[in-house]
Structure formats: C-alpha cells, structure tokens
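RESIDUES AND SHAPES:
===
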Amino acid sequence: MLIKTLVENTSISESFASEHGLSLYVETKAEKLLFDVGASDLFRRNAKKLDVDIADVDALVISHGHFDHGGGLATFLKKNKTAKVYLHPLAFEQYYASRPNDRLDYIGLDTELRDHEQVVYTSERFSITDNIYVFSNVPQREALPKSNRGLFIEEKGQKIADRFAHEQSLVVKEDGRFLLITGCAHNGILNILWHFQSLEGRMPDFVVGGFHLSSRSGGQESPEEIDKIATTLIGTGAKFYTCHCTGLDVYKRMKSAMGSQIEYLSAGSEVTL
C-alpha cells in the first residue's frame, strides 16, 4: 500500500502548502482512495505535485463532520464525477468550536452537499469493498480526549458537548495485513484500537492518522496521559504514522518513548507499507 499526505498542518518543504486539516491518498493493488479532503482545495493542488489525479480516485471517505476534514468536498465533487463519498449519517449536523472571547465558530460541512448523488451514508460497520470498510459506534472504555472540550453539536436549538457519534475510521486489508486510518480519533485512539480488535480479533499492522491529543479549542492531554497512551500503543505491535491533531509537542514526547514505532506525516510525504 502507498500513502501520500495531501494535506496536513505542516509540510515537508516549501514546495507543498499546508493548512489545519487532513487529507490522505491511499493506493492499494485494486483501489485508489481518499481519506478526508482538508479544509479547502489545497488537497487538489498538492495532489498534482504528488502525481495524484483526483478524477481517478475510486472512493472518498470523510472521517467526521468538521470542515478541516471535509471542507474540500465541493472541490472533490467538481473534479470527480464517479467516486462515491462515504459519510456517517450525522456528518452534516451543526458543529461548533469555542474560540477566544467566548465566541463559537461553525466548523461543520457544507449542508448543501447533503443530498448529492455521490454521497453514501454509512452504518456502524459498512463495507466499501470486500477488503475495505468503515466503522463507528466505538465503545468508550477510556474517557474521551480532554482536547475534545470546546467542541459542540447543536441539538434542538442548544449547543451541547459533541459526543462524536459522527466519527468513523477506515480499515483496509491487503496481503493479510490491516491498515487502520483515523481522522482525529475524537473517540480516543485506544478506544478505536480496542474496537478494531473486537471486530478483527487482532490489532492492526499499521495505524495512520491524528490522535487528538492537543487542540486549538481544548488544550492538551497531560504528560502522564500521553505516556500511558504511548505505552499502550507500544504493546499493540503496530507501526504508527500520526499527524494533524496529535500535536507536534505531543508527538515528540511519544517519539521519545516509542522510537521507530511511530513517525510523523507532513504534507508531501509518501510512505509505502
């Protein structure tokens, strides 16, 4: 499998622009996938530099209903007229984030795209192909990340703490190995890993994505919690490629504990699994 990072908060060089967001291109022997499309049309511009033709993508998975993961959806639909776009049924609800001076900003998706003919709504375990599926409805064995604080959903005219039921993760199986991709892991990276284990009877071989251990809205996890998570990740035996909402300072702390078992993905990076 080949993974190219189209959008991330950082970039490998000045040749690639960056933004607060995430978009990953995943190529298997049989499929060309996109996982998220960042906050703008940047994914398309960086894709060109990485020799990725958006029109050739077979399927797009949007991890959850925040604009930094689905803000480029309109651009994708203009460039690709055939790929299905897989979203959780709650992805187009109204989502907000707290900002300085007690301001709440809308951070949801463009609701005008809700009924687009290419959009497909998923279920708690939804197959895209025989070897590719998404899952949601993750049991909460561990508390959700503290950095979720400051993120809200509007229900019945009131803004309440988001429960992140709209988040889904992607699983790709090839040659007997499993790749698990998380968008932000708002449901907790450990909870997601344990739920994957309950579905497959084993841990994944590779895990890619953000762990939401820091946030512009809700601060950062404690050093003790970060160390606990790193120790648990080591025990899975998986190789981790993290990015976006994990946070660079958090990554450095995890890297010191996990060594070569964890790496960081920036816009423009390419990884072959």
User: Anything to note?
Assistant: The chain has a mean pLDDT of 96. The chain has six helices and 20 strands. Residues 2-272 form a domain with the Metallo-beta-lactamase; Chain A fold (CATH 3.60.15.10).
